[in-house]
Amino acid sequence: MSVYTVPDQSGKFGNFGGRYVPELLMPAVLELEKAYEEAKQDKHFLEELNYYLKQYVGRETPLYFAERLTEKAGGAKIYLKREDLNHTGAHKINNTIGQALLTVRMGKRKVVAETGAGQHGVATATVCALLGLDCIVFMGEEDIRRQALNVQRMELLGAEVRSVEGGSGTLKDAVNEALRYWVNYVEDTHYIIGSVVGPHPFPMLVRDFQAVIGEETKRQIVEQDGELPEKIIACVGGGSNAMGMFYPFVEEKDVTLIGVEAGGSGLETNKHAATLTKGKVGVLHGTLTHLLQDENGQIEEAFSISAGLDYPGVGPEHSYLQSIDRVNYTSVTDKEALEAFELLSRREGIIPALESSHAVAHAMKVAGQMSKDETIVVCLSGRGDKDLRQEGNMNVKEEK
Amino acid sequence: MGKVKLEKALQEKLSAEEKIFSPFITAGDGGLDILPERIKFFEENGAAVIELGIPFSDPVADGPTIQAAGSRALDNGTTLAKVLDVLEKTKLERAIPVVIMTYINPIITFGIEDFARKCAEAGVDGVIIPDLPMEEESLIAEALSKGHIAFIRLAAMTSPTERLQELAERTEGFLYAVAVTGTTGARTEHDAYVSTFLQKLKTYTNTPVLAGFGVSTGEQARALGEHSDGVIVGSKIVQLLHEGKLAEISQLMEESRSLKV
Q1: Is B118 part of any domain?
Q2: Are A303 and A265 a contacting pair, CB within 8 Å?
């Protein structure tokens, strides 16, 4: 069996990935790589990380058999990996706790981050409060409007939230500003990037910190169901929950891995965030990957009801996994995601994040075509309280 | 042509005991029609080389002034292909070397080999790519070399000595010394370390060292020029061009060059 060993020394996943950053940032990127390589070998660091994951984040999270959802789909058994039950309500904190501990290890006391839905911003602000670090979070003005509650949370946690007015006022623009801020304050500040994107080593280290999702799932599904599942489904924006879930299963060739991108208003409309389905290869935010861009190499705005998937790029490892045909990528529309949002709430008493609702929607589509002794695991990456206002607005719009 | 032309032009200035002045402008800001006219203006005012910035949707190394200029240029339909077309059509009208500064993504979309070939045809003498560090430069180095285009490297104050030496060794045409720890844009003052930084770079290479980022006054230009071979002025010039204040640009260039070697 081939052994999956990406990225290589230079941060490449095949041709994807790399470190496309200004020279000014190179020393910081190399310093981070070195600090991470050392930390990985340091028993003390790993113990501390595991301590916080257990006692503070609340891991491990349950793998829950969704019986009434399964009944509705009328086919394969559907299990939900409950990342929504983590402290702060999403998988994001698996990464922020790891990176915050690295920040301290590098002797830095200041943190900058970007956020889309606000989940990564909240998870960053939370661990900064925990470890006594200064925290600035950049957030697009459109996202600040649609995720007001998370802005209040971050501020209560002591973070400074800075509104980004350029571009579409969403995640891409927030990353631009966070990178510019890092360029200006790189000497005493660490950038806690929120997904498996950005220059090496970020895609690798964020994946590694999120891999706890897949590792737990692998153990839990065998305990509960006796064997590995037929399919695993996760939503993909930048793709950190998906990467964390998929990574421990990459060499389990009998397990079909499916990434679900945001189809927005539909792939035919150009109002979507289906980077891997419709994008072209290029460089954005320090990495070579699939991007939504025009014929002149200008990055286009992504579109999705879910702020967390509203990103015109995707983690380079996803591009790689697509190129070697290991993961299938598909998309579901805003409308389908909203239906799944309601369905899971009504049938299981679990309000999923709109991001995770994309994965649920796709699971409902495929489960019905599978037999009753087969299983699907869905990564329920976050909870949906934050989306109630957004969901309400959408329904009002549709009624008009 | 190309690298040789750039090297020769800079050497001539230095031999005449003049400091090098290099303006940066965003191509297409104010429309692409006026680009040849603007190049002419800087040539007549004694610029040694002109840098043309290609607008990009996500310019993470740029501060607010150049971001705004880039947005204006994109809004009026400026593309890398169109800029190269204009340069090719007007290449006999100018003697001054032209350097393209662009993020890597528009080049990837254009096609790396095509880009290098088209640069050679359009009379582009050098290329600066702010988001392509040494680790990734093999993507384009060979294509530029084949086209005899100078591949200009950027050195930063955060770079450790070994990296600075390596960059100084590799650079072609000139070495672009980033004189701030930050994005482009006017600054009131420069870090005290900057003079040491520039002096160090000068000892690593015989290629001219030009200081850029954060230079907005003749006084700053002269101060940085004391430890380097000249300066690159971007945001300030972009702003003055946008406001139509050409006389102020001439004055800034005059003041910047008043220090002799």
Answers
A1: yes
A2: yes
What pLDDT score does A234 carry? 99
Q: State how far Cα A7 lies from the chain centre.
A: 19
Compute φ and ψ for A261, nearest 5 degrees: -95, 170
pLDDT at A20: 98
Residue B133 contacts A, CB cutoff 8 Å: yes
Number of domains in chain B: 1
Show the 3-state SS of B227-239.
CCCEEEECHHHHH
> Which candidate from B79, B110, B181 shows the least CB-CB separation from A24?
B181
Tokens of residue A279, six digits:
């994008």
Contact B182/B146 with Cβ under 8 angstroms?
no
Contact assignment for A27 to B58 by CB distance below 8 Å: no
- Residue B161 in domain: yes
Decide if B261 is inside a domain: no
Whether A114 is catalytic: yes
Distance in angstroms (rounded) separating the CA atoms of residues B191 and A211: 42
CATH number at residue B133: 3.20.20.70
Beta bridge partners of B163: none
Residues 178 through 197 of chain B touching chain A, CB cutoff 8 Å: 178, 181-183
Q: Which domain holds residue B41?
A: 3-256
Report the complex ipTM. 0.96
Which positions ≥6 away from A30 have C-beta within 8 Å?
none
Contact A121, A139 (CB under 8 A): yes
Copy the structure tokens of residue B113.
Answer: 């080999």
pLDDT digits (tens, 9 = 90+) for A31-87: 999 999 999 999 999 999 999 999 999 999 999 999 999 999 999 999 999 999 999
